[in-house]
Specification:
4 helices
Length: 68
């Protein structure tokens, strides 16, 4: 999952007329489990989604430092 794809998934999930399988297909066959790892059903970010986008839970950018 890329940050760009995650943002697009958020956008798609705000449209309640779209099914999760349809969203997963549009994202390039992303498994639903991957989608739900990063996002809640309403499209809001979970902790892994915040980390992927490099933001904290308040939506502010945070510094990302390499491990080690």
């Amino acid at each position: 999952m890329t940050a760009e794809r995650l943002r697009y998934a958020q956008h798609l999930m705000t449209d309640r007329s779209r099914s999760i399988p349809a969203i997963c297909r549009e994202l390039g066959s992303v498994p639903a489990s991957t989608l739900y790892h990063y996002l809640h059903a309403d499209g809001t970010l979970k902790a892994p989604g915040f980390r992927l986008l490099g933001t904290n839970t308040a939506g502010k950018a945070q510094a990302v430092f390499p491990a080690g």
